[in-house]
Structure formats: structure tokens, C-alpha cells
TrEMBL record:
Residues that bind heme b: H222
Protein localization: Secreted
UniProt keyword Nucleotidyltransferase, yes or no: no
GO cellular component terms, semicolon-separated: extracellular region
Keywords from the named record: Glycoprotein, Heme, Iron, Metal-binding, Secreted, Signal
The species this protein was found in: Magallana gigas (Pacific oyster)
Keyword set includes Transport: no
MF term (GO), any: metal ion binding
PROSITE patterns (alphabetical): PEROXIDASE_3 (PS50292)
Protein name in UniProt: Uncharacterized protein
Length: 459
């Protein structure tokens, strides 16, 4: 049963930290917004007293947890023990969830089951889960051809290992270069090797995701959310069924309708459409209508992000600037890396410059040249992803008995996200860099033009 934090006799519950809404709010007519605190945890290894921390309920490693789950129970629930593949439903869609809490637009709609419980929040997110489930199952089929005597468990484990490697490669080779500047990639040693093994594993690095990263910094993506999703037909010109984001929260209809036959149309729209830019403006769908119910009661994602930072006790924006070795502001007028217009907005909202929340200050910064985020978020993101890479004993480039052979690593390095998308979601042609829209320098190519893994290296 969900915890309620708005109403008589419940706001003082220890689990509650509700947001007070002023009477002159331009959208919300209630005086309270629901907010449940994160589950508490002792600091460090849990064996000493100290400041309260919070539990991360999913894996922090880039290891495909969204595909396979973060617990043995979820893993067993999602895999087909007879074949080594992941369970799917008709149409090669994700399997149905037992706990059906989704909205339905048709009798054939269902709530999807995946490694992360947020799979149904929005159809485009569900599409990301589906992409790598299909790729896992495809890889199992290819491995079975070259290793027909392998057990279903061996096939599952090797395919999972390859999926983890592909996710790490796409994250560091394609995603991070679209978020951080070339200089920051160099400074934080985030560039992947072109050949050979890595010797960068450092057992003293803590690969856990940091509280500030989880509760504020990586939420910069919330400002990227567009107002609509739609289908883009095979001619790459006809957009149909345009739907507002606020109307499809927890409604996977766009993804699963017609037995999955519109998956390609949705994926085609996503990879050819611009996101919004990183700034202090959130789209109305998530600012005024987040998870809105039938009675028109929704939430404000920006307000929730600020409250989550306070719930977790994050130091303010200025303190993090100091931590990163950046110039610290002494007044609103000398806030570095923020335009005069946004300085005025922050001065209207906060009593002093040292009160600015980490999320609010970070998204207000002007992006660095060649980056999507400003200097503070670049610093914290760079530090976090350095820890996730060099603190991971099973990092795909590492040499070791659990790792890949050099010939196998060469095959994995060939693969781009574009190849995974076109192979599994039917977007063909597709641009080489799917994190940027098609352009003369990022022009469409046939799926067959992209290199693919030669699984003979697994014989």
C-alpha cells in the first residue's frame, strides 16, 4: 500500500517530507504535494553510526541490471531457464508483469516486466529495455550456432557478459561524448582503448553511485524530456499518432499495440527527434502533470528533485563548486557560468547564494563548449563515471580469467548503438551516431553497412 503524506495526521510521519504548495501557485490548487523519503541506511558498510545514508535498490555497475534485474529473484523471474534467453511475450515484446499497475488504452495492453521497475513509466523507456532484451536473445542464438554443446545457463551467462560489455562501450564511447566535452573526457580518463586490454582497475576506487550523482546531478536528463512522442513511418517523413507525454505515463500502449508492430515506428521517431536542451526549464508534462491521475492531480518533477536532494542532505550548489575546484560565488551577481537572466531567477527564489540547491544551480549553468552540461555537472559526472569504470573488477576491457579474449574484445569494439537499434528494432536506414539527429555529417546508412560481431571468435 503506498504511503500517503498529504492529509490530516500523516504529514509528520517519519517517512514523509511533503512539499508545501503556496496558495498562489499558477497550476496546483492543493496545499501539499506527496513526497515519501528514501529508505534510510547506515553509512559506510552499515556497521557504524554516522550521518544517515540512503539505500540504492539497484546495481550501481553498468552491467545490464535494467535487463536482468538487481536480485537473484528478479533474474530468475525474467530468464527462460530452458533456452538461456530472456522471457518475452507474443510479438517479441517484454513479458507481462504480475502486478499490473499500468493504464490501458486497449484490451490487449499489459504492464511490462523488466529488470527495473520503472520500465512502464513512459513508452520510450520501455523501448530501451526491449532493445537489450532482444539483443540478448539474438546473441544467445548466435552463440548456440558456434557452441551447440553449451548449456542454457552457459549461453545465458555469456550473452549477459556481452550485453554488459556493449552497454559499457556505448555509455563511454557514444553517450558520454555527447554529454561531456573532449577536455573533460581526457581529464577524467574516460576514453576507451582502441585495442588491447586495460590495466586501470583500482581496488581502492568505490564504484557505488554517489549520493549527489543519484539525487541531483544525473537528473539533468529530466530537462531533456520532449513534450510529445509519435510514430515516424518508414518514409522518415510522416509523423502520426503524436501523443503528449503527460497522457502516456504508465501507459505502454504506443510500444506494445498491434502486437509490437509499431515498435519500429516509435524507435524511428526517437532516434530522429531532438531532445530539449539542458537548462532550468522542464517541460510542462513533467513540471505540472507528472503521473497525473484521473482527477487531474499530478506532481512537479523539478520540485521533487529539489526535495530529494534535501531529503538526502546534499550540500548546496556552492559547496559542490568548491569540491570541484571551481570558482565559488559570494553573491548572486557574481555567480560564474550562469547568465544574468538566470541569476535573477535564483535571487528571487533563494535568500542567499549559499542556499542554492545542487540541482537548481547545476541545470542553470551554461553548457561548456562541446558539452550538454555546465562545469559543475561535468565535474561530478566525470568523477562518477571514472569510479564506475576503474572501480569495476569486471570492466569489459580488463584482462582476467573472467574477461574476454583479445579477439573477442576486438569484435565487441566494432559495435555501435546504431547497429543494435537497427538490428533489433527495425530502424533501417539509421544514422551512425544515434545520440545526435541525422545530418550531412551523421547521415543515414543501411544497417548492413555497420560492422557486427563475428561470433566465430567464441568457438
Amino acid at each position: 500500500v503506498p504511503i500517503t503524506c498529504c492529509g490530516e495526521n500523516v504529514q509528520n510521519r517519519p517517512q514523509c517530507f511533503p512539499i508545501s504548495i503556496p496558495s498562489d501557485d499558477p497550476h496546483f490548487d492543493d496545499s501539499c504535494m506527496e513526497f515519501v523519503r528514501s529508505a534510510p541506511s547506515p553509512p559506510g558498510d552499515g556497521c557504524q553510526l554516522g550521518p544517515q545514508e540512503q539505500i540504492n535498490q539497484i546495481t550501481s555497475f553498468i552491467d545490464g541490471g535494467s535487463v536482468y534485474g538487481s536480485s537473484k529473484e528478479k533474474m530468475e523471474e525474467l530468464k527462460n531457464t530452458d533456452t538461456g534467453q530472456m522471457r518475452t511475450s507474443p510479438g517479441d515484446l517484454l513479458p507481462p508483469a504480475v502486478d499490473d499497475t499500468c493504464e490501458s488504452s486497449a484490451e490487449t495492453d499489459f504492464c511490462q516486466n523488466a529488470g527495473d521497475l520503472r520500465v512502464n513509466e513512459i513508452p520510450s523507456l520501455g523501448g530501451n529495455h526491449l532493445l537489450f532484451v532482444r539483443e540478448h536473445n539474438r546473441i544467445v542464438g548466435e552463440l548456440r550456432k558456434v557452441q551447440p554443446k553449451w548449456s542454457s545457463l552457459k549461453l545465458y551467462q555469456e550473452a549477459r557478459k556481452i550485453i554488459g560489455a556493449l552497454l559499457q562501450q556505448v555509455t563511454y564511447g557514444e553517450f558520454l561524448p555527447s554529454i561531456l566535452s573532449k577536455q573533460d573526457l581526457e581529464n577524467h580518463k574516460l576514453k576507451l582503448r582502441n585495442s588491447g586490454f586495460s590495466n586501470n582497475y583500482d581496488s581502492s576506487r568505490n564504484p557505488a553511485t554517489k549520493n549527489a550523482f543519484n539525487a541531483a546531478v544525473f537528473r539533468f536528463g529530466h530537462s531533456l524530456i520532449p513534450p510529445n512522442l509519435a510514430y515516424l513511418l518508414y518514409d522518415f517523413m510522416s509523423r502520426v499518432n503524436s501523443t503528449t507525454i503527460e497522457s502516456i505515463f504508465f501507459n505502454p500502449h504506443l510500444l506494445i499495440t498491434e502486437g509490437g508492430r509499431r515498435v519500429s515506428d516509435l524507435a524511428r521517431f526517437i532516434v530522429t527527434s531532438n531532445s530539449m536542451k539542458v537548462d532550468n526549464q522542464l517541460e510542462g508534462a513533467v513540471r505540472d502533470h507528472l503521473f497525473e491521475n484521473a482527477h487531474g492531480k499530478g506532481m512537479d518533477l523539478g520540485a521533487l528533485n529539489l526535495q530529494r536532494g534535501r531529503d538526502h542532505g546534499l550540500p548546496p550548489y556552492n559547496a559542490w563548486r568548491k569540491w570541484c575546484g571551481l570558482t565559488v560565488a559570494t553573491s548572486f551577481s557574481n555567480l560564474p557560468d550562469i547568465t544574468d537572466e538566470k541569476k535573477t531567477v535564483l535571487a528571487d527564489l533563494y535568500s542567499g547564494v549559499d542556499d542554492i540547491d545542487l540541482f537548481a544551480g547545476g541545470v542553470a549553468e551554461t553548457p561548456l563548449d562541446g558539452a550538454a552540461v555546465g562545469p559543475l555537472f561535468s565535474c561530478i559526472i566525470g568523477n562518477q563515471f571514472r569510479d564506475l569504470k576503474d572501480g569495476d573488477r569486471y570492466w569489459y576491457e580488463n584482462r582476467g580469467v573472467e574477461g574476454f579474449k583479445q579477439a573477442q574484445l576486438r569484435e565487441i569494439r566494432k559495435v555501435k548503438l546504431a547497429k543494435i537499434v537497427c538490428t533489433n528494432l527495425g530502424v533501417d536506414p539509421i544514422q551512425p551516431d544515434v545520440f545526435h539527429v541525422p545530418s550531412p555529417s551523421n547521415n543515414w546508412q543501411s544497417c548492413s553497412q555497420f560492422p557486427e560481431i563475428d561470433f566465430a571468435r567464441w568457438r
